[in-house]
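Sequence, please.
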């Protein structure tokens, strides 16, 4: 299995975020920053934020990461770095924000 550099970088960001949550919220020190050891620690946590991050790792493993679930185009790398669990490209996110803001056209 091989990933492009950007995906690998974002995978590190996600693992890092999970490790931070585990340490700060659950006082569980993460000694090994590998996907296997981190996923093992996530079992039975039921934390929505951790769950989102775990799902993002799943998408990376399946090669589905970084595509917008609406328009299927690639999501901007900067956006993914800022918000690695995002499912939408910035265009669709704007449309969604507009729709849910209650503004009538
Ligand atoms: Zn989109």
């Amino acid at each position: 299995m091989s990933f492009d550099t950007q995906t690998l970088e974002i995978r590190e960001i996600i693992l890092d975020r999970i490790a931070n949550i585990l340490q700060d919220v659950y006082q569980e020190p993460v000694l090994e920053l590998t996907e296997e050891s981190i996923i093992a620690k996530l079992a039975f946590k039921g934390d929505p934020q951790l769950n989102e991050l775990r799902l993002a790792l799943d998408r990376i493993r399946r090669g589905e990461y970084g595509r917008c679930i609406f328009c299927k185009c690639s999501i901007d790398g900067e956006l993914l770095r800022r918000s690695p669990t995002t499912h939408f490209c910035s265009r669709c996110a704007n449309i969604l924000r507009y729709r849910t803001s209650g503004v009538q056209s």
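The pocket of zinc ion is lined by residues 68, 70-71, 73, 88-89, 91-92 (CB under 6 Å).
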